């Protein structure tokens, strides 16, 4: 099982470091996430920093100022925070559970962007609001910060649903931050390598889970076109969607809904997966008409800390678990014919 244990710890009380901190006051709280401590080069860097910087030398610390980073979505923010650790000061524009397609930035968001050294965005048209935020920066007579679009393969902006795209994100974030703070390049790169290996583990786990779904039930209907990269990577075709397209902001026509209902019946689609921030009315209507299950899923955002998708890794685990459970369910109308499925 994969556990997401790599969030930077905010606690500065660290019993393991007491022998060093005890001699004199040391102004190096957790510069590195707790879980990275096993990494020897990082531990050495940390120790070196702790010995060089006395508590009172506030002026000397200007050089070691954290990089001011803005991330657009919570998913981008999670990965940026893992790679940047204590060397960055991160502001994430979207709140947990928000829909990126309908996001309206506030004046405070504009200030965060104007103040940032760098912005990390998903890209591929997901953040329609970003241009406006950059323009507002210019109106304050400030050169807007550079924007790094993380992107990924394919045309669907929901690139993170394929962990291989997020592996590339980790490398891109590490190399960008390393360029801005060369002293910490090794740290950023080591974190990216470690995260990449966790994502490889995640990918292996998803494959094993999906292998448990009978071949003829591997198809899904989603609320909008938000699982194309996942669908292609793990070979679960998206048979249709409630709102055709990559956004959640339109409504399907009556003809589109009639076609969707036919498709669900013809292809015996086991379930409709709907984002938790979506209005479920239309999907409920389609589910009722076709007699299939409506399954909530995470789409554009992580949950808050108490939810089951508080990190990208947990987001993927939660969604995969829901998808696999729902697709393994027997299809009520054709059960007698489907009894003999064994999967692979
Ligand atoms: Zn979306």
Overall description:
The structure is a single chain. The protein has about 350 residues and is an alpha/beta fold. It has 3 domains: about 1-60, no CATH class; about 60-205, Nitrogenase molybdenum iron protein domain (Rossmann fold, 3-Layer(aba) Sandwich); about 215-335, Nitrogenase molybdenum iron protein domain (Rossmann fold). About 40% of the residues lie in helices and about 10% in strands. It has helices spanning about 20, 40-50, 75-85, 105-115, 130-140, 165-180, 185-210, 230-235, 255-265, 280-290, 310-330, 335-340; strands at about 65-70, 90, 120, 145-150, 220, 240, 270-275, 295. Strands 2-1-3-4 form a 4-stranded parallel sheet, with helices on both faces. Strands 6-5-7-8 form a 4-stranded parallel sheet, sandwiched between helices. Strand 1, helix 3 (about 75-85) and strand 2 (about 90) form a beta-alpha-beta unit. Helix 3 (about 75-85) packs across helix 6 and helix 4 (about 105-115) packs across helix 5 (about 130-140). The longest helix has 27 residues, at about 185-210. The radius of gyration is 23 Å and the shape is globular. It binds zinc ion.
Keywords:
single chain, 344 residues, alpha/beta, Rossmann fold, 3 domains, four-stranded parallel β-sheet, 12 helices, 8 strands, 42% helix, globular, disordered N terminus, disordered C terminus, binds zinc ion
Could you say which structural class the secondary elements and strand pairing correspond to?
Answer: alpha/beta
Parts with pLDDT < 50 across at least 5 consecutive residues = 1-62, 334-344
* Assembly of the depicted chains: single chain
Stated plainly, the CATH topology of the largest domain is called Rossmann fold
Q: Output the CATH homologous superfamily of the largest domain.
A: Nitrogenase molybdenum iron protein domain
Largest sheet: 4 strands, parallel
Q: Which small-molecule species are bound to the chains here?
A: zinc ion
Compute the separation of the termini in Å: 22 Å
Average pLDDT metric: 83
* Broad CATH class of the largest domain: Alpha Beta
Provide the gyration radius in Å. 23 Å
Architecture of the largest domain in CATH?
3-Layer(aba) Sandwich
